[in-house]
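Thread title: Can someone regenerate the structure for this chain?

I was given the following input by a collaborator and told the matching structure tokens would be attached. They weren't. Posting the sequence so someone can regenerate them.
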Amino acid sequence: MHSAPAVVFPVGRSHFEAWSIGALISCECFAWVLWSSSVAVIGEFQISAGALVVVFSVWLLMSWWQTPQGRLSWDGMNWALYLKGQTTSVNPELVFDLQFVMLLRLGVHESSRACWVWLERSSNSLRWFALRRAVHQPPVRPEDRAFGRGDPSVGLSGPAP
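Best answer:
Regenerated them for you:
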């Protein structure tokens, strides 16, 4: 079995995520307006719900705006995330895949922290399929690494003796 090729892919704000957040906020506002217009007098429940809609919407927009900007890299053996001049070894977990957009949970090896990123084909369409192959391939086991299996630089028969 061949390994996925090495690939570097940009990580940043996703248009798909922005559209999804916009749709969610629109639905929340529509539901709140519909509910508020169905009662005779707007009371404390409607005001509290409206405040929660505003707070939640602001939180969603701020979290989207603060999406990390950098690169996700697969070298044939390991995944790395490059953000603000720092390199972190990560373990990607595919959460959602629509063929043109993927949501990955990037677990950091040294801690229990995780980073969630949306990756889109439109960010780099030339490398999109290489990224998809790398994300979908089974993880390389430590014992395979010792023999060079899973390394694209090593031939099918393993490392040279």
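DSSP finds four helices and six strands in the chain.
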